[in-house]
Amino acid sequence: MGRLTSIIAGIALGLMAGMIGLLATQPGPLALPRALAAVLTSPGLLENVARLAAPIAVAGSGLALAYRAGFITIGSEGQMLLASLASLYLIAYLDIGGPWSLLAAVLVGAVWGLVPGLFRAYAGVNEVLSSLMLNYIALSIVNYLVSTSLREGAFTQTRFIGEDKVLEAPLALGIALLTALGLEAFLTHTIPGAAMQAYGSAPRMAKTYLATSRRIILQAALASGAAAGLAGYLMLTGFQRGFTAMSTTPGYGYMGVLAAWLGLRSPLGALGAALLFSLLATAGYLLQPQGVPGSMALLVQALAVLATVTLLSRGGR
Amino acid sequence: MADLHGIVVAALANTVPLALAGLGEALLERSGRVNLGVEGLMAVGAAVGVLAGIHLGNPYPALVIGGLAAALLSLLYVIPVIVLGADQIVAGLALFFAGTALADLAGAATGGAPAPPLVGSPWDPVAASTLALVVASTLLLYRSWLGVEIRAVGESMEHAQARGLRVAQIQGGLAIAAAFLAGVAGAYMALALHNGRWYSGITAGWGWIALGLVILGYWSPPGVLLASLLAGALLSSRTLLAAHGVNEAIADMAPYLAVLASLLVMSLVAGRRARPPSMVWRRE
Amino acid sequence: MEPLLEARDLWKIYPNGVEANRGVNIALHPGTVYALLGENGAGKTTLVKILSGAEKPTRGEVRLNGAPAPATPRQAHQAGVYMVPQHPTLFPNLTVLEDVGLTLRMAGARLGRAGVRRLIEEASAGYGLAVDPDARVEGLSVGERQRVEVLKGVLVGRKVLFLDEPSTHMSPSEVGSLVALARRLAREGRAVFYITHRIREALDVADKILIMRRGRLEAELDRGEASKERILAAMFGRIPEKPQPVATRPGGEVLRAEDLWVPSPHGGWALRGVSLTVRAGEILGVAGIAGNGQKELVEAIIGLARPRRGRILINGVDVSSLAPRARMRMGLAVVPEERLGWAVAPGLSIWLNTALPLLARNGARLLLRRGRAKGIASRVVELAGVRARSLDQPVETLSGGNIQRLVVGRELEAGPHVVVAMNPAAGLDYSGASMVESMLLKAAARGAGVLLVDEDLELLARVSSRIVVLSRGVLTGEFTPPYDVDAIGRAMTMR
């Protein structure tokens, strides 16, 4: 099966599984297409889709790059959280907005993203596990700050950024598109980008002729971390606006992981997958009052990715 | 010191789910496969275990049903990866997300009601079975021909296939068995460690910790048990730390930090010289 | 007399269109040693795989004792048919006993550990195949692993025993005892089928010599009627010219390795104080059996492995602390052992695989200009005579010979001072192998110093200006033309 057919069939299978899941709920399976149609025809909801898609797309684009280089990080979740908190601090506590808060987010994301890269490059620690541990550590750090120095008022929560600081949806989406295009260009039109791809497919070849392992891994870790940092900024200024104590992470970074795989490890593909995911998630919100749990959207996304990669691996034979 | 006694009991109770999940995954990885979805499998085990407990009124069959639910879910890994040849990393990650979502769906059905809890004590049947499983899987791996086959498949699937070993059956069987154990582990977390209540995010990354413990235990059943004991102790030190005035959020961080640090130390000390006994984590 | 194993009109056409076997008829009788000769790519391995049940023919059938022959290796083992592979496929993480036991059990024997041990010890003593059942395979040398494979052949191949290029990793004296063993097994009533590309070995071992060329059985000669000339004529369709000895006037020293010590991944040392020099315009051959430090030597020189002691100089400059790419910018070129995954990256296009290493060598750091890169690639493709449909096709869609042309062409494109090549002609057919040889000779003629690490002693003797021998991580001898192949063989097993 071709690439496009596999993706379309995979998404269709995911949606079908979601509808089967809805059989067990009160509104029934047709609620899903109805909700999707409702989102697509409402400009207000489409704006929500764009705001939600932007951070997922940016994180996914960075991850796509890392996955091409064979660096399988799933640390975007924690990187986004910490980056988000850094922007929040600048905007809501120091009143430094605009590009500086964005830059701070990118920086924090890159630094947190560099950690599993350093672990892998200098000690050979598997980045899947280390980046996951770092997600939980990031969650603890955020919870700590929310309950101590950033705590505001009677409840364990931070200040929230004002309505006027919320990013316009088209701008958020524009940033996402630019990031994806930029990363795509990096992969195909630069020597370090091509070297990353070579390393992902044949590490020994890349090590012998192109660059050291360390350089490539650190570049991939840094780039995906910086992207996740930007995603954290877009998350904060798009819809998050502030933090309360959390028992689990919000999960947008994990959606970025799924978007990167569904987009076949291409930054632009990740953008497309992110749009689809946020469409699904928004439709999911619409269904929640009708007794459909919010996780339904995540289930559909995960199954779509699973079906797509399975179909593709069959086609490749 | 009753306090110390309490901590030791809690540490041993924490060890049970970690060891169960880690043991299954260690055997699977010995056959050359890795399933990154352990956390999702545990979540499903927890949610279904609580549901079953509520309906049956007895935590022991509920553990088994939680395990069976996870085993069923693992077909989403076994069929794409082992039968159809999809990438195991992506499939494992997708299973993690699917499991988390399904657990939320099933868990919502509990409506927050508790199942009859399993009184966690180091001498309960589950802890005893865990220990027995460690012994049995050690014997299986090192003393039986099936164990030789598992290790051979884990070394080179291609050569094992050429020799006529039943690669898919061995890996598929181990993947399903490992998922069953992960499901039991999740159900145990809910029924024994959280008084029979389910909530979203109940597994708290323990599935991922278990994946780390497989490496720390160097893919051997006794090693995994030992690593689980250490991690279990760390996880139970949370209450001790909190009691000494350490911020709760910081205390939460300790076990993850410890696993991360020990992976680092282990890789620095052993990683360069010795190679993993299975091809899973081997890299250029 | 009824043949034991018989094949009629075997055809094997691979999905990529290669016709590996084209109408082969063959009959094997018990008590006979057959030698199958043919150059690389003639279809020998395919034929043996079909006869031993590892592959299915596209057309034709194989019969064992008049019944349809086993269709899988497992069935073949149960029927007493066994193939000793060219490269041992033992499991490094098992003990010899476990590995042999696995094979015996697959062949249908219901044995415990004690039973397996007894069988190993009996065969080991009875046939002079010294193996330690409790040794872990990863600690064994390639030669010792080959011995375990032969032992398995003795135990399992009770009726028909195939040996695929068994002498690949053996010293001349080991080959001698293997030949004696093959003849003894045939005397005891088995059919022994010995695949080789070495004519001398075939004449020593065989009752009947079969010669394969381009997928067909070209000739079948009895022991008495076979001669080197007749065999050569059948193998190549003509008597090939004797290779010309290399006439070079070596210039200044371009590569120098001093006292290299490299640890082995299995503990101990892979290289123990190796020193060598290569001068401009010469080819220095490094002979030796695989696993005696060759790979580590190559990795140390190109910079993939850090020696614990010693240093490496290119054109007199100490490069010991430099990364591979920096060494290449100083004039090093590398033709690695594995093509896919080391020499080129599968999944990437031909043009990227060609241009990227060259651009990196020229110091390009950021922009990848497609026009320029494709220009470089198309020049290399044309000069090296690579047959490709398009520069955009993934590199792995090329045949092995074409990939190697591309790699050698790419590496010589930059006008290197030092060329390091490891087994560059392995697995190539005659024309591919001779192209690689002539390209290396041309590089030397243009003034490069070539370090050629190769298992094929005949090839080394053809092209090398000097030969050194690597055995157990130590250089055990240096030879100059005319080469005394027997003396080199002795040095290969020296401690």
Helix/strand order of chain B, N-terminal first: HHHHHHHHHHHH
Protein chain pair with the most extensive contact, residues per chain: A-B, 52 and 53 residues
| CATH hierarchy: architecture of the largest domain in chain C | 3-Layer(aba) Sandwich
Q: What separation lies between the terminal Cα atoms of chain C?
A: 49 Å
Q: What is the mean predicted local confidence, pLDDT of chain B?
A: 89
The name of the CATH topology of the largest domain in chain C is Rossmann fold
CATH class of the largest domain in chain C: Alpha Beta
CATH level-four homologous superfamily name of the largest domain in chain C:
P-loop containing nucleotide triphosphate hydrolases
Radius of gyration of chain B (CA) equals: 18 Å
Number of strands of chain B: 0
Ends apart, CA distance between termini of chain B? 51 Å
Mean pLDDT of chain C: 89
What class, by secondary structure content of chain C? alpha/beta
Cα shape of chain B: globular
Q: Which stretches of chain B of 5+ consecutive residues score pLDDT under 50? A: none
Which structural class should the secondary elements of chain B be placed in? Answer: mainly alpha
Instruction: Report the uncertain regions of chain C.
Output: none
Give the biggest sheet of chain C: 6 strands, mixed
What's the tally of helices of chain C? 16
